[in-house]
Amino acid sequence: MWALPVTFAGPGDARLTELENLTEAQLVEACLAGRAGAFDLVVDRHRRTVYQLCYRFVGNHEDASDLSQDVFLRAYRGLKSFRGGSSLATWLYRIGVNVCLNKVATKKPILEDLDARPHVDTGHEPQDERVLREERAVRVRAAIGKLPPKQRATLVLRMYQELSHEEIAGILDSSVGAVKANFFHAMGNLKKILSEA
Amino acid sequence: MTAHLTPEQFVDLAEGTQPESAVPHLAACDACRRELADLRAMMTAAAEPGVDAVPEPSPLYWSHLSSRVRDAVAQEAAPRSWRGQLLRPFVLVPSLGAALAVAIIAVVASNRTVDAPAIPSSPLVSSSTALVPERTPSLPPLAPLGAADDPQLAVVAGVATAVDWDEMMDEVAMSTADTSDAVASALTQDEQRELQRLLTEAIAQPGAREKLS
Fold it and tell me: Which residues of B touch A (CB under 8 A)?
């Protein structure tokens, strides 16, 4: 697990084009064989998704960036154990959720200021309505951060990463019924937290 | 009236994967209708624009992230020094656990030796051949253990405060027959006495007690 050979390919390298044509399973094999650029390609394909997932758990760029790196490093270490029973994306999600839940369990996330968040263009929305909507968004985000870990993960994966219940069940190593129940209870708790705030 | 809807049914209805007409109970149950309305309202609130917004990093960020991962992977793949190997958690933690086990076993063993009741001499055995442990003249006698100022207990107490009991027992349980706990249990009294002497010397070093407290 520590001794995977690793070589890198530069941009424009003909070997990269060759790698891009590989199936996912072949790409994993190429990583394990230490082919130049193979793991780079895995990172390039999934970095945005992994970063967004991490950001939604920790709420700031710096932690999301560190966690993303951690996710890929763990993926690299565990590549030999990837059996291809699920997609690489699902497997990375699984690692990502575990890394993020560990992180938020040990350190309270520092949410970025409202001003650091992107302004969502909702057409001709009046200024005062936009302010109110953004305030509601902050409250909802804070409430999501107070949910129990599995409910929070389920909600993030379902509503924001837009995964199916089946995919979430695979990531959380759970049943579809349990995922739906978690989602239901997450919404109930969200309502409770918001009403107490 | 039929049973109330399950969480799974509520989610299917709220997400529209099951039509309300497929659940006749809903039309007859106010509580379930309210529950469904609440669920839909919360889903709407959670999906409001801005709640899930992730700021787009600078265009250069993605290649920077890839570089960071590449560097970390390259560092991982590079051969480690012997010191690096020793400091890896799955080497260091069992080693510390085993060392702690050795210390505890040694102290307990020497404590038992000191506190053991005297064996009455049998009339069949002369006093010179009674079953009393022989002492090596060159080694100092064991210090009495259990006193409040017993330095050996201070050593163990100092180490034990930093170690979780369950973790330590796991480490001890993970030890195999050729590891330190087996070695410790095989120590002779003289060897245990020597270990005790070494421990006493170690804690007599300047600043040793401060480090342990």
Answer: 6-8, 10-12, 38-39, 41-43, 45-57, 61-62, 65-66, 68-70, 72-74, 76-77
Tokens of A50: 């992994």
Residue B50, Ramachandran bin (φ over 0: left; ψ between -120 and 50: alpha; else beta): left
Distance (Å) of CA A154 to CA A102, A142, A184: 15, 16, 10
* pLDDT per position as a tens digit, B17-50: 999 999 999 999 999 999 999 999 999 999 988 8
Whole-number Cα distances in Å, A134 to A23, A45, A127, A131, B46: 42, 31, 11, 5, 12
Residue B78 or residue A109, greater confidence: B78
**Main-chain dihedrals φ then ψ at residue B174, nearest 5 degrees:** -75, -15
Q: In whole angstroms, how far apart are CA A167 and each of A86, A88, A157, B18, B92?
A: 9, 12, 9, 19, 38
pTM: 0.61
Backbone φ, ψ for residue A120 (5° rounding)? -85, 125
The reply to whether ipTM tops 0.85 is no
